[in-house]
């Protein structure tokens, strides 16, 4: 091996010289090796001929041909990428559930059933509710079989856009009716709630909020309070819920006050969470999944569920929703996945993974981070909240954007 | 050298050649504009008139105009600050060519692909741990939230790209001009009266591009509670789920972008002939007065600190946080898929960019072709994606829609103007008489293109392919909407993890992205140097 | 035959050729001289098909090749050998490859030998395998001339071909070039600003003018 490596080095050094010189050089270094002269000469001849051949080829082959070959290889690569051994069973799922949670869950389903799951994930930071608009745009030739959402408003929008097809999952009989579409277009499953995440370090107890109006109480500088941009995500859903519960005028006034007093409006729930953890904010409005994720990291952090007292409105509980896509190519596989996602076992699994904190089934305990507290939800149906989705966004756009 | 015998007797009548070129141009423009067509045609044929009318009213409302004005102000200031610091920092690095300090340019290259949002998060992260005293005084001088911090952070986020533009424009200077100037005047005078005027077209063009990037960027301002016009566009989109409203609201940005880029291009058009591809190594150190040197040094240090700060935090987060390694293993498929898309983009964009560059080269004045080719830069990414979905639906070829074709097309349609500009710059640098000699002595068009034009354009082709690959790695908004089910890219995973808050995972994936881009850039630079030696030899 | 009828050409900087007509019969040689910027090079470029006239017609061998703002027959189909004012050699090819590139197809199989013969005649065989950046300006100019000769074209256009050459080499190259073209009946136009060159070459000389009228059959 040493001789061979020395030979290679020597070849590189002397490749400009003639054959005799190369051979002589190599002989010296392989004097005590097992190679004999004939073998060495044969190897050198092969290398020289190959080198000469490659040089001639490179001279003859022009750059256009090289680019043409590259384009040809690329086309083959595209075709190879799209060709895959056709699985007997597969399902395409579009999901707005965070990839870090949904991916392992879907992989678990794939492993349990053998149905190949092809997910398409949404990206919160893109902010264009991209997945929903993609589903609407693909309506005539849908690629998705099933839509799994982390909330419900977009699902109802899809129903109204005639993107969904009705299906009553076999595992959903014990889910309360107000969390299911009466016509079967979508089914709710366990979810999250809107809460305050509070950093109690060094703050007096009377500063700790109990309801949403405490954000405007002035007990603490508004710059120490944060909410996510109310035009997107679950904050926008909560805004719609407030419009539905309080009425347009009161809700508008509430958000105008939020803006006017200088409450921090930041990029998303996770940013609110991070800022509370770091102490930049004393408390912020976020989701239970964001809050529960970091509770263990800091003993000063507390979850406060707002508006829980007698006579108060309660907080928004946001269920996941599952819906089948009209015209999907794999309806039976989609139905199987829907049954899986709305089942009690799945709810328990989701709670354990930290994606949801509440089951819609009374017998399933909430996540430990909620300290077994029962959460009083807002007395509104999901359809009622949805009715105020667009009007609230119009108002909030004028308040927060313009 | 001889071409393959298959093409030896290939002769086409010249009018046929011209017609074929026109057809190729038309097809290339069709590809470039297919997202826009996919967006506009359905709107014309079946759009919601009420939403259309509302969008028009919203567009001309005083509130919208005020928001647009403020956004322009924010972007202008950010770009000005970034270019100011970048000019001094980049010039300092360039003056140190041939020394160890010039290797800081590699740090600049590493920072360019880091998403702007990461810069903002890291700044916010550091601010939160800043001692209260500094925070208080900072708060007095400029509030931690609001316009000031947004402008500063955005300037910092764009600083690497701005510095890269400055260094590139300095590298393109003809060394003989600088050497001869240094014989007559002081170095300080040379910098002000020779070098700055020569590179100013590039700087203006770079500022124009940065402005376009800034005005379509909302993630940094929103982190500091500042609302900008582009956020308004997406808010409208989110509220109506109708791309018409976004398209109409995007018109002012489109108009600004077209104007800026056309103006920038007119600055550049006649400048390339004064330049050549080589980097200048000063024979003797530049001698500058102390106060001037301090300015250069301070700006250089700002860049250096920013670079080590960002890379350092990413490395620290990746090594100390949880889940970094696991997320890398999970993302291996995404990394391969991203590379696959990148390679397809790099190769397929070359013929298109070549056609556009040839069209630009033939035009004496800035005209319709310049605007046509550069407009796609201004179209927001999600609108490109929605347009491509319409195209996908129209073609309805699952062979294409289930492959990397549409994600690659998303990047191609968004970024090919850059590739065209790079090739145009390369064409401008070639002595026209060499091309004319090719025309005169070539036997037919195939030989002329194959053995003269393309070999001379190799540096431009390499640079264009590298730029397209790098941009495609970071593309998000359009790719997200056209990805086939079961596929994902590394950038999508980064943004998903950002939302989730897995900073270690985000840091690890960012470092992987940086590594990919560094490998591409290094390869391109090594190959460029070899070609440069062959084509522009003996230049320092 | 080279035929130019009422050619007009202007650039952004101004009118270069106003109303030029030229007839040059087969095998004839014409020298055009004049100061820098008077349009000599423009004239050659119009004939070569590198520029198109604003108005007028250009005919080569009875075929209309260019007319008002249109190039009908491209340069590579006009059978032209051109020596540019700057050598304009292909930087990605060696000296011998530059010369071989210009050779017509019928020389295939023999082109390397023929190129070497030309290099020997020009006394630059020693730079055969060198890259363009490795040779001097004078050597580059000689290679440029050899490339034009190697094309074996019907028409030869030389734009200040001997500028970078020392006096002895200049005479040698003139002898070589005009020996070559007289053997092969090539129609030639030489452009120069140096009156001494014209005297050495000894062919018909005209002064360039915007309204030049020449008829040499």
Radius of gyration of chain B: 24 Å
Query: How many extended strands of chain B?
Result: 0
What is the element string of chain B, with H for helices and E for strands? Answer: HHHHHHHHHHHHHHHHHHHHHHHHH
The biggest beta sheet of chain B, please? none
Count of separate DSSP helical elements of chain C: 6
Regions with little confidence, pLDDT below 50 for 5+ residues of chain C: none
Q: What's the overall geometry of chain B? A: globular
| Residue share in β-strands of chain C | 25-35%
Question: How far apart are the first and last residues' alpha carbons of chain B, in Å?
Answer: 30 Å
How would you sum up the major sheet of chain C? 6 strands, mixed
For the largest interface, the chains and their residue counts are:
A-B, 79 and 84 residues
Order of helices and strands of chain C: EEEHEEEEHHHEHEHEE
How many beta strands in the DSSP annotation of chain C?
Answer: 11
Overall mean pLDDT score of chain B? 79
Proportion in β-strands of chain B: under 5%
Strand order in the largest sheet of chain C: 6-5-4-1-2-11
Task: Kindly describe this structure.
The complex is a heterotrimer of chains A (402), B (540) and C (217). Chain A is an alpha/beta fold. Chain A has helices spanning 2-14, 19-29, 37-60, 63-82, 99-113, 130-137, 153-160, 233-246, 248-261, 269-278, 288-294, 331-342, 344-353, 382-387, 389-401, and strands at residues 90-95, 116-121, 146-149, 164-165, 187-199, 225-228, 264-266, 283-287, 301-304, 317-325. In chain A, strands 1, 2, 3, 4, 5, 6, 7, 8, 9 and 10 form a ten-stranded mixed beta sheet that branches. The longest helix of chain A has 24 residues, at 37-60. Chain A is elongated and about 100 Å long. Chain B starts with 13 loop residues before the first helix and ends in a 5-residue tail after the last helix. The longest helix of chain B has 34 residues, at 62-95. Chain B is globular and about 70 Å long. With 540 residues, chain B is mostly helical. In chain B, helix 2 (49-59) crosses helix 12 (243-269) and helix 3 (62-95) packs across helix 13 (290-320). Chain C has 217 residues and is of the alpha/beta class. Chain C is built from six helices and eleven strands. At the A-B interface, helix 4, strand 1, helix 5, strand 2 and helix 6 of A face helix 3, helix 5, helix 10, helix 11 and helix 15 of B.
